[in-house]
Amino acid sequence: MLNILFTTSTSAAFEWQGNEPYYTEREYTVFLDGEVAHRGNTNVFSLFGLVPGREYTLTADCMEGELRFSTLTESAAVSVRDFGAVGDGATDDTVAIQTAVNCMPRGARLIFPEGTYLTSPICLKSHITIDIPEGAVLLGHTEKCRYPIIPGKLTDAVSGDEVHFGSWEGNAVPMHQALLFAEYAEDITIVGRGRVDGNAEAAGWWIDVKSYPVGRPRLMFFNRCESVRVHGIHACNSASWQMHPYFSRRVDFVDMFISAPKDSPNTDAIDPEACDEVNIIGCRFSVGDDCIAIKSGKIEIGRKFKTPANRHTIRNCLMQFGHGAVTLGSEMAGGVTNLTVNRCVFIATDRGLRIKTRRGRGKDAVIDGVVFENIKMDGVLTPIVINMWYNCCDPDRNSEYVWSREHLPVDERTPYLGSFTFRNMECLNCQAAACYCDGLPEMPIGEITLEGIKFTFAEDAEPSKPAMREFMEPMCRAGMYFDNVGKLTVKDVTLEGVVGDELIASHIGELVRK
After folding, report:
1. Residues 22 and 375: beta-carbon distance below 8 Å
2. Which of 279, 276, 385 has the alpha carbon at shortest distance from 330?
3. 252 in the Ramachandran plot: left (φ > 0), alpha (ψ -120 to 50) or beta?
4. CB atoms within 10 A of CB 186
5. Staple 487 to which of 146, 252, 451, 510, CB 3.0 to 4.6 Å?
6. Which residue segments constitute the domains of the chain, with CATH numbers given?
7. Of these residues, 93, 271, 276, 289, which one is catalytic?
8. Which of 323, 350, 364, 394 is labelled catalytic?
9. Is 95 helix (H, G, I), strand (E, B) or coil?
10. Average pLDDT of 271-287?
11. Among residues of the chain, what percentage have pLDDT more than 70?
């Protein structure tokens, strides 16, 4: 079966149903109104350059029958060059691009013809489509002074209430404006097979990163926006996080490629923070930090807004060379609930699932309802890491309160981890450990279920630390490690090449092994 994920005025995204992760069993050919439109072998594919407001008939050599769909209508379609943009890679096109955006009527599409458009940050507005087709590049300016500083929060001049604007690593603090930027907007679409390039290396953003007094720019930042779609774009080389929706609702990232060099700092691909209903489908990642990091703010933000990252779906994605394929935290003081990761492939990431929390994240830091199924991993150092002792970021990270293995009192600073299910997974060529799950003595991880999983270890595996915590010793080809878990179920799980015990479990409330 073939499902339509969504359509825009000029594009459509489709998904083959089944259980195979990311790739189809064989290559297929797609026909649009009888003409060859696409050949591929991935579960998600897209068609671009369609005509607005038109009905199409789609068939494929691997499906019976036909699928009819219609593109959306639009109010207007104009070229950014009509506003003076040059696109030669040398002329500063910022004013022309921003003027074009400002002038777009509701429901209009702004087209970037083939070329390289050198630009400073652009502020988007509601009800428009930015069309960046193949051959078009938005290239970030290399002069740092061209990235304005956005305040974290200001005081309303009449009511005295806080109004929030900027963010950096979970706090409402100043930041440099993102290359594509929207606040308090809705119905924004960015579409096409073109490239949005932060140009961070040329600008020097990756040098001495801890010295910057304010947060480095993201590639795209959406603050308190609703109905945002990014489809098909190649996003790359951001100064920091590449896609950062913040307190936003109904956000879709579909059939994208997000890339940065392996050694580029903080270049997470997609970091939804305190968002509701985020879909990340058919995307490919190769970055220098986490591929996807789901967040909900540090303690001040979590306590004030009590807004969890909720109803996120990650499906049919390929993650390569990141620190974590899917990471939760560590800025998750508002909680993470109802996350499903399905039909994905992780290759040579440090971890598959990586949960980072610790004492001090607070009572609202609840992670619950996490399901991973139909996952393939190869060359992942440790496929599953649930760590309640994370010792990176923040002044208190090395304090005795964080690292003490004593049973401390449960109070408003204590985080909570609920249920986690891992099902139908193949994890090949692991190195450090099959999994490492370490709860707090006073707040054990609620429930972990592993079912239908195969772990194998690389013959040339080298010792490494599976989790970031104080006094963590390196491991090599270790089995499944669990400490402080309320209920642990291990069913139909096999390990090949493990050194030592397959199951290392202590302080487990209930153990079910089949």
Report:
1. no
2. 385
3. beta
4. 16
5. 510
6. 2-70 (2.60.40.10), 74-289 (2.160.20.10), 292-514 (2.160.20.10)
7. 289
8. 323
9. helix
10. 98
11. 100
The yes-or-no answer on residue 323 being catalytic is yes
Residue 234 is a catalytic residue? no
DSSP-based helix, strand, coil % in the chain, nearest 5? 5, 50, 45
Q: What is the pLDDT of residues 341-362, one digit of tens each?
A: 999 999 999 999 999 999 999 9
What was the pLDDT predicted at 128? 98
Q: pLDDT at residue 397 above 90?
A: no
Residue 329 bridge partners (DSSP): 356
Number of neighbouring beta carbons within 10 Å of residue 372: 25
Token representation of residue 97 = 């691009």
d(CA 279, CA 289): 20
- Where residue 394 falls among pLDDT bands split at 50, 70, 90? confident
pLDDT for position 393: 76
Which amino acid would we find at residue 360? G
**Main-chain dihedrals φ then ψ at residue 257, nearest 5 degrees:** -120, 125
Contact yes or no for 121/179 (Cβ under 8 A):
yes
Alpha-carbon distance of 352 to 371, in angstroms, equals 13
pLDDT of residue 395: 80
Look up the pTM and report it: 0.97
Spatial CA neighbour of 170 closest among 300, 36, 316: 300
